[in-house]
Input
Amino acid sequence: MAFAPVPRLILPAISCCLLVMAPDSSCRASDLVEAAPLTDQIVLLRFHDGYIEYHGYGQKSEQDTTFIDPLDLTRAASRETYSISSADDAAYASSVQPTLVGRKSKAKDFSRKCQWDGSACVNEIVFEHLIYLVLPSRLRSANTYRVGIGGLARNLEAASIHFDEKWTRSEAIHVNQVGYLPDCDSKFGYVSHWMGDLEGLSLDDRAGARFEILEAPSRQPVYAGSMSLRYRKTQRETGQSTDTPGGNFTNADVWECDFSAFRKPGEYVLTVQGIGCSFPFEIGSQVYREAFYLTARALYHQRASLPLEDRYTDWPRPADHSPTANGTSIRYTPLRFMDQTTESGIKEEVYSHLANGNLESYGWYHDAGDWDGYPSHSVVPKSLMTICGLAPDRFLDGELSLPESGNGIPDIIDEAAWLVYYYRRNVGPTGGVFGSRITGDLAGGDKDGVPSWEDSREWIAFGEEPLASFDYAGMAAQLAYCLRQVDAL
Output
């Protein structure tokens, strides 16, 4: 469903005038990429210092190119830099300055110039800066304001913002964007924001503020309530003293908007008096379906050894890490991964225990950022089979567009079986299961600019061990149970 545009300023993220790496310090200027009210008394300005052009196919990570034009932090922190005016609001008929200015900065892009060899190196970083302007008077709803930024940005001298609680999204309002089930006993939205050196957003003077649930397309109210305090920033949320300052994860008070009693399916926004509104969200019986679909589809793209064909994905690739499809050399060592003192074992020790010849092993899951497999990946089939076992009638054959689709088995079970069958193929000389840890890292890290199907390293599969063997036994039994459930439907 299409929504009317939210009136907040989204600006070009990259200026055509960015300097490469070493801008003239006398002419520093970031890009203003967003300007919007955080509340009716605080304006948020978002600046980007640049961007990184990352290396591509056949290139080294040293070829990352960083474009930086940093924000002048001294001027950005000064009240005198800014001016706020309005033709609609008499309080801003003449330009005024903010009463306070705050800043929160964080890295938004990182180069990969530093290698894994441990040599001294500092990766280049591009920063994002959020500037908070505390205003002398509250913004009035349905009014437009001009925010002058005193030359801080290359791309703009000023930004125009419009404040309307029903349409203006606030970074301080948080909802579950996956959605809510209609009959769920608890439905909450939250209001909270940490503002860097201005600390947590204080809303004590807004206790009991009215909130409304609005139909997203029309912004007509369908439910109302009062905002109440959920958690103080001084309350500890963790016993780990080094987790976060003060033991609190938000470092800001959290206020809640309880709309648990509202159950009507539809698409809505949450709006809070004097603050703004949330992203659109859905209440519906199928809100978790998309999250399931996208997550399960991601697993297909992590499969090793098979080609990803364009009839199943928009990101096709040839087969990788397969002794038969692309000639990957996979060697067996009887050494157990559980006995190793490092992530991939000591190279000299592992290579001194390699068996002769290559394995025909294939079909694990690639890890998150590279291509090796770990024992922990067994959580994937276990989770999928547990979910299907709890509600077998809710999962269908063909819903995930897999190569196995159409075989009469729900696709969630086909995906679960991928790793189970990998374990089944890997029965070693002792009768146990090997290869729960499989890696190419002992032959060197995966090379820059080289895709998985061109990876020419020798791969090592670690030997049989109790965890992998017990894992396989349990997963095989669970898979058999799920298949019997399917037969019974």
Summary: The chain has three domains: 9-163, 173-284, 288-488.
